[in-house]
Protein: Histidinol-phosphate aminotransferase
Organism: Paraburkholderia elongata
Amino acid sequence: MSRFWSDVIHRLTPYIPGEQPAHANPVKLNTNENPYPPSPRVVDAIRRELDQDTLRKYPDPESCALRQTVARYHGLSSEQVFVGNGSDEVLAHVFQALLKHDRPVRFPDISYSFYPVYARLYGVAFEAKPLDRDFTINIDDYAPSGGPVLLPNPNAPTGLALRLTDIARLLTENPGFVVVIDEAYVDFGAESAVTLIPSHPNLLVVQTTSKARSLAGMRVGFALGNEALIHALTRVKDSFNSYPIDRLAQVAAVAAYEDDAWFRMTCAKVVKSRERLAKGLRAQGFEVTPSTANFVFARHPARDATTLTALLRAQGIFVRHFDLPRINQHLRISVGTDDECDALLRSLRSILATYEPYPTTENI
Ligand SMILES: *Cc1c(COP(=O)(O)O)cnc(C)c1O
């Protein structure tokens, strides 16, 4: 607190990112990073860029080559692609440019916890719609025409996906409002809404290179949609930071999209390990939601999640725990390599064997 702060800063509740541990050799399953490195072509592209001695010059403010690459990949035009410094920045611009209207934006109560933070930062009214008891999104909460909609698909941190037919219905029933689908995890098993872009001018799809393309450290995210929506985002970008994607990030992201075989191979490995991890957790008594993402959402019926997180951390194993209503007994565990998942399962087995269950009546 300081008297120098503006009013809006006093009232903010900032997002808390997952820990980047100082631990020498952590088993890091807390921020949904990819356990595999990006394509070797990414490193080559960065080296080539460095060899050309270009870092003293500003990057392409429009990220033309990258937008063309991504447009071609999805069968869109460059004018239907916006690039931002991570999809977090893209989402921030979306709130400011497209979600501030006379009707509140609707998103799930259990969802990406950055959404309410952006809403408060930009003074955007919102309604958090409760998920059903089994954590599914009730599409009827959004379908009656009533305001913009923002849904992650698959949802975070539950990992549950919506069907494309439900998204199509939302778009049709809300023709006067933007529907934003945040597809940060879509490549691990959900259906992308990108195919609906040509038929729905109110659809904006947000994607990132951070999860499925192993480039969390590079900060490159996208919005895909009708030219008018993309133009709105570009107007915000050019009123905020006209060079948001640095030279290395631009060439790295192009190379990542050009190596589709690498992308498919690493996604398939993560999906396989996810199923193996979920099975291992269920064998130890955990309830695990059927995930289509690169993480699982699990709860032990007789062990406190805060304690489990702390005991795992003491062994150098990092998972994510959200101290929020309805999910404070869940752990969100990123899918690592099979070795990392095995280390987690081993630690859990010893923790469960030595630490007493608590009375299960408390655990509702
Ligand atoms: C990780 C994540 C993002 C942000 O990704 P960036 O690294 O900023 O591109 C956006 N939405 C959801 C739901 C995420 O989980």
Notes: The longest strand covers residues 203-208. Residues 40-259 form a domain with the Aspartate Aminotransferase; domain 2 fold (CATH 3.40.640.10).
